[in-house]
């Protein structure tokens, strides 16, 4: 896949995942939130919990899962910490880290609490 096609496929996957969270009763509060160290694809709220979502797209859910590396996990944690500083409870706020896998057909698989902190 060329860079431009891959970029746009990733944006479409993020759009689908954001819609999925909204459709399941979770409020999407930010998309492509930029921190000093990078970006969080989707941030949603489920009651008092803040959900940080990393979206991965590939031909299959398995291949998408393999695209999440340790460096990205560290970046996500750093950005989440920065975002949590804006919440009323700060770093003590209840959060979870989900990974949303999107396959070539657009099917979404959400792995809740996929990344433990």
From TrEMBL:
Gene Ontology molecular function: nucleic acid binding
Pfam family of the protein (one): UPF0102
Coiled coil region boundaries: none
Record-stated family: Belongs to the UPF0102 family.
The protein's name in its UniProt record: UPF0102 protein JAN5088_02189
Species name: Jannaschia rubra
Source species taxonomy: Bacteria, Pseudomonadati, Pseudomonadota, Alphaproteobacteria, Rhodobacterales
């Amino acid at each position: 896949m060329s860079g431009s096609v891959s970029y746009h496929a990733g944006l479409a996957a993020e759009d689908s995942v954001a819609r999925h969270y909204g459709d399941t009763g979770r409020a999407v509060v930010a998309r492509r939130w930029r921190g000093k160290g990078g970006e969080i694809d989707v941030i949603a709220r489920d009651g008092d919990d803040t959900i940080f979502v990393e979206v991965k797209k590939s031909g299959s859910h398995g291949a998408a899962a393999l695209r999440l590396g340790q460096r990205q996990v560290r970046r996500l944690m750093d950005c989440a910490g920065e975002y949590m500083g804006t919440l009323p409870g700060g770093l003590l706020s209840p959060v979870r880290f989900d990974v949303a896998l999107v396959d070539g057909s657009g099917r979404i698989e959400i792995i809740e609490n996929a990344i433990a902190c």
